């Protein structure tokens, strides 16, 4: 069996690069070949994209840290020992998926590939219907009223900052 450290520090970044950044990027390049979206973010304004992508990476790493503190991982085969409601989970129920959308938005701005902004809602819908609904059912079954109360207080996607 692969150790948690190898999974988190090797496999997870490869997964994020391939499926969260490279695949959406190439889909957007293909889409842009038909749409011919205008160049909006030109140097130096496109550098804002690096800052935004970096914020997404920081949020992702911070969220993974919360999983490790709870004696688990974000991987479904090694879930945490309890319901995580601390750190980024205080503001959104899906901080990892939110961080991925932020990373994609940052790449869109940095590369001036505006078609990525069309890919983001498609990506989020895929995650929502393919993963989040299943995860929430499992959490409701596992944690019952405690999860339902958390679900009532914390939004699914857009972070509650106040």
Succession of helices and strands: HHHHH
As a percent range, the share of helical residues equals 55-70%
Note the beta-strand portion.
under 5%
Inertia-based shape: elongated
Quickly give the structural class: mainly alpha
Oligomer: single chain
Contiguous low-pLDDT stretches (5 residues minimum) are none
| Radius of gyration (Å) | 17 Å
Q: How many strand units?
A: 0
Distance between the termini: 42 Å
> Counting H and I runs of at least 4 residues, what is the number of helices?
5
Mean pLDDT: 85
Q: How many discrete domains?
A: 1
How would a crystallographer describe the biggest sheet? none
Description:
- By secondary structure, the chain is mainly alpha-helical.
- The protein is 67% helix and 0% strand.
- The radius of gyration is 17 Å and the shape is elongated.
- The model has no long low-confidence stretch (mean pLDDT 85).
Briefly summarize what is shown:
The protein is an all-alpha fold and 162 residues long.
Features:
single chain; 162 residues; mainly alpha; 5 helices
SSE diagram, text form:
Elements: H1 4-35, H2 48-69, H3 95-111, H4 116-143, H5 145-153
């Amino acid at each position: 069996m692969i150790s948690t450290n190898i999974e988190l520090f090797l496999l997870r970044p490869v997964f994020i690069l391939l499926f969260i950044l490279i695949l959406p990027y190439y889909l957007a390049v293909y889409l842009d070949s038909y749409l011919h979206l205008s160049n909006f973010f030109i140097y130096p304004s496109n550098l804002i994209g690096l800052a935004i992508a970096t914020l997404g990476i920081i949020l992702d790493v911070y969220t993974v840290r919360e999983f490790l503190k709870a004696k688990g991982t974000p991987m479904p085969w090694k879930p945490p020992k309890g319901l995580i409601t601390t750190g980024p989970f205080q503001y959104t129920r899906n901080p990892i998926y939110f961080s991925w959308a932020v990373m994609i938005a940052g790449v869109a701005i940095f590369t001036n590939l505006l078609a990525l902004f069309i890919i983001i809602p498609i990506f989020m819908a895929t995650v929502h219907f393919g993963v989040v609904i299943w995860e929430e059912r499992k959490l409701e079954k596992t944690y019952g009223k405690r999860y339902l109360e958390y679900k009532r207080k914390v939004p699914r996607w857009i972070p509650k900052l106040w």
